[in-house]
Specification:
The complex is a heterodimer of chains A (about 110) and B (about 120). With about 110 residues, chain A is mostly beta strands. In chain A, about 0% of the residues lie in helices and about 50% in strands. In chain A, the strands form two sheets. In chain A, strands 2, 4, 5, 6, 9, 10 and 11 form a seven-stranded mixed β-sheet that branches. In chain A, strand 7 and strand 8 (about 75-80) form a beta hairpin. Chain B has about 120 residues and is mainly β. In chain B, strand 7 and strand 8 (about 65-70) form a beta hairpin. The termini of chain B are far apart. In chain B, about 35% of the residues are buried. The chains are: A mainly beta (about 110), B mainly beta (about 120). The interface between A and B is medium-sized, with 27 and 25 residues.
Chain lengths: ~110, ~120
């Protein structure tokens, strides 16, 4: 089945130690998103790729970076994680060809900071 | 100002009964889409139903229907015949603009936690 896959499902890292979260998709969607979701809150958009064009949200900290080496893969890099970065990170994809298409989400990566 | 407002932090419903989850939105764009997602405790976001701003009829998907009142800017989700597996967080979300405007991110409401009781 076509889907969005996030790895790992759970990630534990140390304060200040760089960490990378990955997302892959088999939907061939041209838009990929990264959201941060803290406990009992709505998902908050960090950035998205429209094809190869990177679009950063104005309030996304510089500590968060992203890479999209090809259509199928997208990575979220946190350069120096702080305790406040502990959250669920959700990857999503969509296609711009039909306006009524929902975003398809992966199962998320739950990040803990020690 | 919040673009998506969900005023019910938590809701309880008896199994087999219907429940309405409220959502109001704010946009000046004539073209927009409204989405409902379900998020169980395991964390994945599951798409439920979509309503476009130009759609004449209310959307329905199985036990889910959307009560779309455009003039009031509301898009309430109705779940009929609730099941225990419906217990989850429910998010209303909006995407503004035409499909070709480039920005296609969703703006989410704060969510409603639904608990279905046996």
């Amino acid at each position: 089945d076509a889907m969005v896959i996030q790895n790992p499902r759970y990630q534990v890292t140390q304060f200040g130690k760089p960490v990378t979260l990955s997302c892959s998709q088999t939907l061939n969607h041209n838009v990929m998103y990264w959201y941060q979701q803290k406990s009992s809150q709505a998902p908050k958009l960090l950035f998205h790729y429209y094809d190869k064009d990177f679009n950063n949200e104005a309030d996304t900290p510089d500590n968060f970076q992203s890479r999209r080496p090809n259509t199928s893969f997208c990575f979220l890099d946190i350069r120096s994680p702080g305790l406040g970065d502990a959250a669920m990170y959700l990857c999503a994809t969509s296609s711009d060809r039909l306006s009524n298409q929902p975003q398809h989400f992966g199962d998320g990566t739950r990040l803990s900071i020690l | 100002a919040q673009k998506i407002t969900q005023t019910q932090p938590g809701m309880f419903v008896q199994e087999k009964e219907a429940v309405t989850l409220d959502c109001t939105y704010d946009t000046s764009d004539p073209s927009y889409g409204l989405f409902w997602y379900k998020q169980p405790s395991s964390g994945e976001m599951i798409f439920l139903i979509y309503q476009g701003s130009y759609d004449q009829q209310n959307a329905t998907e199985g036990r889910y229907s959307l009560n779309f009142q455009k003039a009031r800017k509301s898009a309430n989700l109705v779940i009929s015949a609730s099941q225990l597996g419906d217990s989850a967080m429910y998010f209303c979300a909006m995407r503004e603009g035409r499909w070709d405007t480039g920005r296609r991110a969703l703006t989410f409401g704060s969510g409603t936690r639904l608990q279905v009781q046996p």
